[in-house]
Amino acid sequence: MSINFKELANKYQTPYYVYDFDYITKQYEELKGAFRARKSLIAYAVKANSNLSVIKHLANLGAGADCVSIGEVKRALKVGIPAYKIIFSGVGKIDEEIKQALELDILMINVESDAELNRVELIAKELGKIARISIRINPNIDPQTHPYISTGLHENKFGVDIDTAKRMYIQCKNSENLDPVGMHCHIGSQLTQLQPIKESVKIITDLVRNLKAIKIELSFVDVGGGLGIVYKDEKLIDTNEYAQSILENMFGLDITVVCEPGKFMVGNAGTFVTKVLYEKVNGNKRFVIVDGAMNDLIRPALYNAYHRVEVLNDNQEFSDCNLVGPVCESGDFFAKNIKLQKTQHNDLVAIYSAGAYGFTMSSNYNTRGKVAEIAIENGKDRLIRRRETFEDIIALEEEFIK
Ligand code: LLP
């Protein structure tokens, strides 16, 4: 659907994020439908966009949640995702988080090292609980994506190798406080090639079968997230082929398939909208300066990520420029060396594919308030997070001024 960015700017000011909730529904239904031949759980990766209304929308559709902090677990619970659909992942869980996850009785804890497994066992014992465990396998597979968002190689900090995993499953089996229920694997984000996913699913399902042979029967295989989206002209993985290539490895296993998409659900549902403040020319370099900045959307600065940009005016005079924000860093840009038309003060600029890892990675750098977030559903807009004020930003420091 087309969104009237101008109307929203008049109503909510700029910069803002706007999310098309109907698009999120479509993405969820598409993926869930692709797995229809099996029991499946789509556990939305909350880190991609953790706005409560976004999670609630997915909860209403039946999604579970993949969380990487107890804060994310609590967000998911708050909007009605049942504990039995919540997974807790991450390489560095602290004791208090493990304790709370056990008390909240979530579906499973994704354990990422043998040291962590010992810790979970100890804490479960202290609480008199049995911890449902899934172990994250690092299959040592190159996902062919940006190195910063690649996670499935031994050189990355994530998961454990197969032999370690086997030992850990046996430890679970022999423990009174651990119950091995799942196996997990996530090789990276923005995946556009099916082959590395196929290979890693094969590796983990082989291990599931090996374990079955020694009477360790798992109920869940979590194939991670990472399905890519269109930023520019990427050719995407077909969701039916994706599901098919996973399911064909499950033959003869009584397993619920779990996947944890973040970007796929919300990435292309979101647009970041900012307005032009000034144009300037340094030497012969043209800059278009907008009111949004790297603290609002850091992906270009952090990964040199491409986001399609559109100036919303009818001017036909295009020339090269850098689109930059007001923050005091040369890394504060949205796009470099792109052709944009001549702009005027207050022209709107839409930065697309910004629904995932946009707002959630934003900060208050330069004492800039986090921006407003808006939902569009059935053609109607509503505010789902108000713009931060100066008072919001200083609230946690003010009382300590001496
Ligand atoms: N599961 C696990 C264990 C993960 O680590 C991640 C993402 C996901 C699922 C969801 O991945 P997705 O489907 O969203 O690709 N900030 C980066 C992406 C970092 C991804 C971190 N882990 C970006 O802006 O591209």
Describe this structure as you would to a colleague.
- The protein has 402 residues and is α/β, with parallel strands linked by helices.
- It has two domains: 5-16 and 268-390, Lyase, Ornithine Decarboxylase, Chain A, domain 1; 90-259, Alanine racemase (TIM Barrel, Alpha-Beta Barrel).
- The chain has twelve helices and 17 strands.
- The strands form two sheets. Strands 1, 10, 11, 12, 13, 14, 15, 16 and 17 form a nine-stranded mixed β-sheet that branches. An eight-stranded parallel β-barrel has the order 2-3-4-5-6-7-8-9, surrounded by seven helices.
- Helix 5 packs across helix 6 and helix 8 (194-213) runs parallel beside helix 9 (239-247).
- The longest helix has 20 residues, at 194-213.
- The model has no long low-confidence stretch (mean pLDDT 96).
- Ligand LLP binds next to helix 10.
CATH class group of the largest domain: Alpha Beta
**SSE string, helix = H, strand = E?**
HEHEHEHEHEHEHEHEHEHEEHEEEEEEH
Largest sheet: 9 strands, mixed
CATH topology of the largest domain, anyone? TIM Barrel
Ligands (ions, cofactors included):
ligand LLP
Q: Summarize the amount of helix as a percent range.
A: 25-40%
Quote the distance from N terminus to C terminus.
53 Å
How many domains in all? 2
Mean pLDDT: 96
Gyration radius, in Å: 23 Å
State which percent range the strand residues make up.
15-25%
- Count of extended strands: 17
Pick out the low-confidence regions.
Answer: none
Helix/strand/pairing category:
alpha/beta
Global shape: globular
CATH superfamily of the largest domain: Alanine racemase
Subunit structure: Homodimer.
Catalytic activity: meso-2,6-diaminopimelate + H(+) = L-lysine + CO2
InterPro entries: Ala_racemase/Decarboxylase_C, DAP_deCOOHase_LysA, De-COase2_C, De-COase2_CS, De-COase2_N, De-COase2_pyr-phos_BS, Orn/DAP/Arg_de-COase, PLP-binding_barrel
Function: Specifically catalyzes the decarboxylation of meso-diaminopimelate (meso-DAP) to L-lysine.
